[in-house]
Write a structure and sequence with these properties.
The protein starts with 18 loop residues before the first strand and ends in a 5-residue tail after the last helix. Helix content is 26%, strand content 11%. The longest helix is centred in the first third of the chain and has 18 residues. The protein has a single domain, classed as Peptidoglycan recognition protein-like (Lysozyme-like, 3-Layer(aba) Sandwich). It is an alpha/beta fold. It contains six helices and nine strands.
């Protein structure tokens, strides 16, 4: 299994890291179907929303190696990877809560298609890691809650991960925008790239923004709680965090990484959500 290096998420300033661990493709597919139904219940009154990732400060990022996938394109542990036939959820109709399908922001499939040949198959899922993108606000300002602004930011992050870092795809599995929409990013059936040495079995959720300088919106916090709750119910992931066992729900820096991710203004919100069992 490829062991991606990771420190956080974003563009040039902030790479992402993920690591999943195990279950067969059919297992993941079955749980995705269940998860879709649970999300519909859990996210009930929320507007469809998106998730971004996490990033350390620019200073921290420059001092750390790039995370995620090696540039070579082949697995480092031997064995064969087989491609899974993963069909994204259909984009939710206007006014209906749910996860927005990947093709709702990646209409140009030739540009945004994942390089499946360089991605490892996901196995059983045991943890969820929450990030912010940490992008420099002077270069990548982000204050709008519009759908268009979220699509643009996701493309910026994808460009940084794929074009700049040379990864197989955007590092996160889901992203939440300032309007509370949840967006599908990397297919959950494949290992992500967001936490160095801890990407196996790890679902990466990005809350879009730089929360060292911004504050998350109430819509983002509600959507984050609902999405984490639904994923925990779908995959049997504990809502607490056991770092020694690598099980549960945590933030990037709680892995002991040299990063500020998910930022000083989001970390307390995650602490509160966790104390409430991720019921926002």
């Amino acid at each position: 299994m490829r062991d991606p290096k990771s420190r956080h998420d974003g563009y040039e300033e902030a790479p992402a890291e993920i690591d999943p661990e195990g279950s067969s493709g059919s297992f993941v597919h079955r749980r995705m179907i269940l998860g879709s139904a649970l999300r519909t219940l859990a996210i009930g009154g929320l507007a469809a929303g998106g998730i971004v990732g996490c990033a350390s400060t620019t200073r921290m990022l420059r001092s750390l190696p790039d995370p995620d996938l090696p540039r070579g394109g082949t697995g480092s542990t031997g064995g064969s990877r087989r491609r899974l036939d993963v069909t994204p959820e259909v984009a939710a109709p206007a006014g209906v809560s749910g996860v927005l399908a990947r093709n709702s922001w990646t209409a140009d499939r030739s540009t945004y298609r994942p390089n499946y040949g360089r991605m490892d198959q996901q196995k059983s899922l045991r943890c969820i890691t929450i990030h912010h993108d940490g992008l420099d606000q002077s270069r990548h300002p982000y204050g709008s809650s519009s759908r268009t602004a979220a699509q643009t930011r996701l493309k910026t992050i994808h460009s940084g991960h794929v074009g700049h870092n040379g990864w197989a795809d955007i590092g996160y599995h889901f992203a939440i925008d300032r309007g509370g929409r949840v967006w599908e990013c990397r297919p959950i059936a494949y290992q992500g790239a967001h936490v160095r040495h801890h990407n196996e079995g790890n679902i990466g959720i990005l809350v879009m923004g730089n929360f060292d300088v911004q504050r998350p919106t109430s819509a983002q916090i509600r959507a984050l709680g609902a999405q984490v709750n639904a994923l925990c119910l779908s995959f049997g992931i504990p809502k607490t965090f056991d770092r020694r066992r690598g099980v549960g729900v945590c933030t990037h820096k709680e892995w002991g990484a040299a990063t500020a991710c998910p930022g000083r203004n989001l970390q307390p919100k995650v602490d509160t959500l966790r104390a409430r069992g991720f019921r926002a």
